[in-house]
Automatic annotation (TrEMBL):
CDD domains: Gnk2-like
Pfam families xrefs: Stress-antifung
Domain Gnk2-homologous: from-to ranges: 33-136, 140-245
Organism: Actinidia chinensis var. chinensis
KW Repeat (keyword) present: yes
Keywords: Repeat, Signal
Entry protein name: Cysteine-rich repeat secretory protein
Signal peptide: 1-28
Amino acid sequence: MKNTFHKGTNFLILALSTLVLSFIPCYADTNVSPGYMCSPEADNSTTVSDSFKTNLNNLLDSLAANVLQSGFYKAAVGKNSNKIYGLIQCRGDVSPTNCANCTNESIKVALHNCTNSKSAAIWFSWCFMRYSSEKFFGTWEGGSVGIYNQTDFDDSTAVLKGIGFMTTLASVTPNQLLLFQTSVLDVGQSGQRFGMAQCGRDLRRSDCGKCLDGQLVSFGASIENLRGWEIYGLGCSMWYRDFQFYSNISTPYSAGGRRLWHGVVGVSMTILSTLTVQTVL
Ligand SMILES: *[C@@H]1O[C@H](CO)[C@@H](O)[C@H](O)[C@H]1NC(C)=O
Ligand SMILES: *[C@@H]1O[C@H](CO)[C@@H](O)[C@H](O)[C@H]1NC(C)=O
Ligand SMILES: *[C@@H]1O[C@H](CO)[C@@H](O)[C@H](O)[C@H]1NC(C)=O
Ligand SMILES: *[C@@H]1O[C@H](CO)[C@@H](O)[C@H](O)[C@H]1NC(C)=O
Ligand SMILES: *[C@@H]1O[C@H](CO)[C@@H](O)[C@H](O)[C@H]1NC(C)=O
Ligand SMILES: *[C@@H]1O[C@H](CO)[C@@H](O)[C@H](O)[C@H]1NC(C)=O
């Protein structure tokens, strides 16, 4: 079992943060956290100001109160150095009830596991939450984590088709309303393979495509012959399995709350570097 951590343009942020990971396969009816990242590391020796704490609580309340309208919400709370930017996004196939539950779970991690952190990214199977004192909306950053069992090899028919299948999925996902798509690959006697991809709904479509392509380029050689894998990133995530791990709900949310954000052209265009830190679990 291996977690491969590809550092991208946000090297500095990641170098200063805690990254906690665990490998748990993702099923439709369970919500597990593959990991979270706090920066600076959660501890009791440093503190954030009371107004930062108040703003964070208000931000988290606001995310929880508004996410159900469309499965995605972003907000900024506070002023000057205490301003916090945050977003929450539920996976495109997740029901509103599960979205609410996942939002609550993420808030628990934010308050409990990222105490005194100025920024946090929290991944769950059903949702992704992120906040920071730096404005990050609309900016794709390259950091991603690949989670896979490196000895769980797939049959050759599936290996031949798998990456091409996911590359196609990566190319169609940016055109979807919710920047979310699932797809099924038929591999004859080897059965079916299931793919899913999703980008942050604050990203432009073009950056969504670059984010997903970048993950396949970075991790392709490590995952191409495997039966299942998951890649979690700050801007996008991808999943590949030999069973249907997503739910059958087609689109629980209308596009009502979808707004592409057009303000920042940041460092997000930089191609992922392939510096890796490997953690053996
Ligand atoms: C911080 O202190 C609280 C209460 O004393 C404790 O429960 C928590 O585990 C501590 N956190 C860290 C990261 O040391
Ligand atoms: C989430 O938390 C809120 C406030 O604590 C609560 O009212 C709501 O029932 C929770 N939702 C779920 C699905 O757990
Ligand atoms: C989310 O749902 C699970 C299973 O129903 C429950 O155990 C958990 O307490 C819920 N979490 C929150 C924060 O409401
Ligand atoms: C948060 O920390 C608690 C222990 O303090 C741990 O049991 C829990 O698994 C952590 N949450 C996540 C999502 O890793
Ligand atoms: C990894 O895959 C191999 C081959 O299928 C399996 O024997 C092993 O139990 C798997 N390891 C874990 C931790 O799931
Ligand atoms: C989705 O529907 C298919 C066929 O109706 C069924 O076999 C499968 O178990 C369902 N999956 C989930 C996760 O509900």
